[in-house]
Amino acid sequence: MSSNFADSQGGTLAVALAELEGRLGEVLKEVRRLRALARALEEENQRLRTIMFAEQAGEGGYQQLLRFYEDGFHVCPPHFARVRDSDGCLFCLSFLEKKGLHPHG
Ligand SMILES: [Zn+2]
User: Are 72 and 105 in contact (CB under 8 A)?
Assistant: First the structure.
């Protein structure tokens, strides 16, 4: 009788664990989805900031972006306003070149 009791408890526990595992999988899937969404929103935010920065600065906006770049900051949408390596950034360069700007050095 006591072994029957243990078996039935063990079975219940296994079912509960399987259920919990299933729910955890769902939660992890949701976390991954939200993380991807957050990343997408951050990238969009950076892109919009770049555009706003250029528009607010008006005529000389792109010249200011160029100076900003030469001061050592990213002006490319993916990394806007972050400190960049002295090596330069290909995204920044192609972004500036599209605006007809050519950084020195
Ligand atoms: Zn960059």
Answer: no
Q: Are 102 and 96 in contact (CB under 8 A)?
A: yes
Where are the domains positioned within the chain?
2-98
pTM metric for this prediction: 0.45
Q: How far apart are CA 4 and CA 98, in angstroms?
A: 76
Give 65-85 pLDDT, tens digit per residue. 888 898 899 988 888 888 998
Angstrom distance (rounded) from CA 23 to CA 42: 28
80 vs 46: CA distance, rounded Å: 6
Give residue 94 CA to ligand 1 midpoint distance, Å: 9
CB within 5 A of ion ligand 1: which residues?
A: 74, 76, 79, 89, 91-92
If we measure between CA atoms, which residue out of 104, 77, 101, 65 comes closest to residue 88? 104
